[in-house]
Write a structure and sequence with these properties.
Elements lengths: L10 H11 L4 H18 L7 H16 L8 H7 L5 H14 L11 H8 L4 H14 L5 H10 L6 H17 L9 H6 L5 H17 L8 H12 L8 E2 L2 E2 L1 H15 L3 H5 L2 H10 L5 H16 L4 H16 L3 H14 L11 H8 L4 H13 L6 H14 L3 H18 L3 H15 L5 H13 L6 H18 L7 H14 L8 H14 L4 H20 L8 H11 L4 H13 L4 H7 L19 H9 L17 H6 L1 H7 L20 H8 L22 H4 L23 H6 L17 E2 L23 H9 L33 E2 L44 H9 L62 H12 L11 H6 L1
Antiparallel strand pairs: 1-2, 3-4
Helix pairs in contact: 1-2, 2-3, 3-5, 4-5, 5-7, 6-7, 6-8, 7-9, 8-9, 9-11, 11-13, 12-13, 12-15, 13-16, 15-16, 15-17, 16-17, 16-18, 17-18, 18-20, 21-22, 21-23, 22-23, 23-25, 24-26, 25-26, 26-28, 27-28, 28-30, 28-31, 29-30
Amino acid sequence: MGSQGGFGQSKEFLDLVKSIGEARSKAEEDRIVLREIETLKRRIVEPDIPKRKMKEYIIRLVYVEMLGHDASFGYIHAVKMTHDDSLLLKRTGYLAVTLFLNEDHDLIILIVNTIQKDLKSDNYLVVCAALNAVCKLINEETIPAVLPQVVELLGHSKEAVRKKAIMALHRFHQRSSSSVAHLLSNFRKKLCDNDPGVMGATLCPLFDLISADPNSYKDLVISFVSILKQVAERRLPKTYDYHQMPAPFIQIRLLKILALLGSGDRQASENMYTVVGDIFRKCDSTSNIGNAVLYECICCASSIYPNPKLLEAAADVISRFLKSDSHNLKYMGIDALSRLIKISPEIAEQHQLAVIDCLEDPDDTLKRKTFELLYRMTKSSNVEVIVDRMIDYMISINDNHYKTEIASRCVELAEQFAPSNHWFIQTINKVFEHAGDLVNIKVAHNLMRLIAEGFGEDDDTADSQLRSSAVESYLRIIGEPKLPSAFLQVICWVLGEYGTAGGKYSASYITGKLCDVAEALSSNDTVKAYAVTALMKIYAFEIAAGRKVDMLPECQSLIEELLASHSTDLQQRAYELQAFITLDAHAVETVMPSDASCEDIEVDKNLSFLDSYVQQLLEQGAQPYIPENERSGMINVGNFRSQDQHDTSTHALRFEAYDLPKTSAPPRISPASLSSSTELVPVPEPSYPVERHHVASMPSASDIGSTELKLRLDGVQKKWGRPTYSSPALSSLDSTSHKAVNGVTQSDVSSTSTQRTRDNSSYDSRSAQTDISSEKKKLAASLFGGASKTEKRPSSTSHKVARPTSSPAVEKSLGPKAVASSSSSSSSSSTGVASEKAAPLQPPPDLLDLGEPTVTSNAPSVDPFKQLEGLIDPNPATPATKAADIMSIYSEFPTSGQSSSVIVNPLPANAGDANLIPGLSPTNKTGQPRGPNPRDALEKDALVRQMGVTPMSQNPNLFRDLLG
């Protein structure tokens, strides 16, 4: 192994440390460490290793881990070393384990018993080592295993053990406060411990407890003040001094606790004034630790109930900080000053030149801290200077995160302390121009609201000047590149509302600018929408004024482009604009009144303006609207929806191959067996979204005749289309069965109404302006001169007469009010469906099974391809009424693209019993066939369904539907 080196370590280990220190690259260092890992892996598993060598191996493993490499192969050996009786080896094992393992490691369970045994040891050094491991390794689950021994050690004779026991309880409280909630009184007791170290350790858990609940510890104020006074008077041993300061860290912790207990409590604060003032006078400011204590005194004086003498002493200390050459002390002085100005704003005026020096300092951290101070001390007399400085600094930085913070602060100060609306608009324009999309969108809405409301008074001249100045500024800005989207929305809205109001600019000039904006941002649909709506407003104002509208070629091309846009919103706005310019002046003025952005819009939720139109259609025979909860067919819709899961499982998709169509000889079946085999059972309908298509209406029962065979659909819930209800006429005719009918007269009623909403709020205006000067004295006068009290204005002022407004920022598309009323369609219905029922002999058929019903027959099988020969050539002479009702299944799918509703009555009157069995022809009493035979139609329908083709007519044809 080599000869021994310094500190009892081998020369090999010392050479390892030396070679790593002399490594010239990370790659070389990694090669050395990896070679050491291979050596340790080989040596650490050798049998009968001396304890001295194992101790060195563990230390070398710690060194490997410190360099960022994995030494997990040696963790178990460190755990074993904690079991050793030797104090040196045990402490080495505990040190390695606390560095290697975390509280959730699997090996923790192996050292809990060892910790319990060592906590009861007679050697206090062993107990201290175990307590160190407790603070690091014990988790929430293992706290109960060691908690009794730790509490018992609070009364140990050695102060080091008591101190570490307090630290362990504090750690338990941080990990699981409920586990030590009954032991919090021990912290109060140990505050009076004779040893200053134990008392100082107790301050840490007490600080956490007081931060959570200050009122429960108000009785300790006298004790904390007494301890702080003794520390300040140097009554503690010299061993607690640091740079000739008596126990500075205990002083700092006590000052933090007193600041919490004295906040808003005058009685408690009065007990603190004397000791805090003594520290101000006696504290040494020549060292960093002394300045740290002074800074904490300032924080305490600004937190407790204010005292003039303490504030004056704090101001003197801040003055020394700001006059120092150290950037750290200047930073601390600016931070302390920002705390004091909340209590005494005039203190900042005493240090105005020092603040200006910090504002111009090249240290960026100090400059940011100074801007935070200026943000806190802003008032109406200095808001212009401070906001301009902040905007200049925002332009000079590239940090988007801090730029966003500066922009939000500029907007907030401008909204609270703006001396005039003109200044506010110009300031927000600068923020938008330089901060871009980092500005909150609410700022744009507030700006539009301010321009719409004006000064909030009856001075229309001032409002007009405000809006004209905004239009002029935006016309100058609109040509600049890379303007943010939110700012362009504001520009388009203002130009649309007030671009031609003063008569200074023509409509063609404003519309040309708006078209340029829309074409420049071809990928931004929101800005395009604002621009199109602004065009509509300008043309509306021109038409209302009786002037001729001449649309520019670029505007015409823009509208034509938007008419074919993929955005439905842009399409609608373009169509509205086209329709708008064709209206007369009276209609335009009614729909788009001038300067009505702040007017309230009353929404008629009941659509009472349609009452006369609806009444007219009802008189013409249209069906009245029936609410959903009153529809007879929808009574059990809740049950249908509740059975969605069941229907999904029972009506799952079929993945087996479709059967070929089968033909059989028509057997003779009695009417009784026919009715029992073809009786359809109502099936609950899951609510599937289905696209509706348009088909030609089916012939009514009176056209077909009462002697034809029909598919019996009474009482069957539809499997396709929307849930329907039976019409009053049909339900009255079918009073004996009381089953849901599968078809209804349907009508669509659609109504489109548009509105423009505008937000309503008001801004204050103050008429105080300060000239910006480049010299420090004038700048300081601008920042700190004027009223000493902060004059914040609420966001909604009381001296303005607010108009009832709604938000002009939200641009809605304006569309014609269109109402599609219930169209009346007469489908004749005569007598009710057959009511005879027979006991079912078979389970109810699955309506989703589109295959052919299987019929047991002894007839020989027929070649399906030969059977196709009869289907290839359609019979032109086939009457239109042949097997018509089989197509009622498709009556719920109108062709896409058609807007009219078609009324289909799938329950013709005088329909006979349905025959679903192929090959069975209807017969009359004399045995002769009566009416058309539906066999061919049923077979064709089944075949085309099996081929995946949807029939296009009432008589399905395979090849025509495939090719059509």
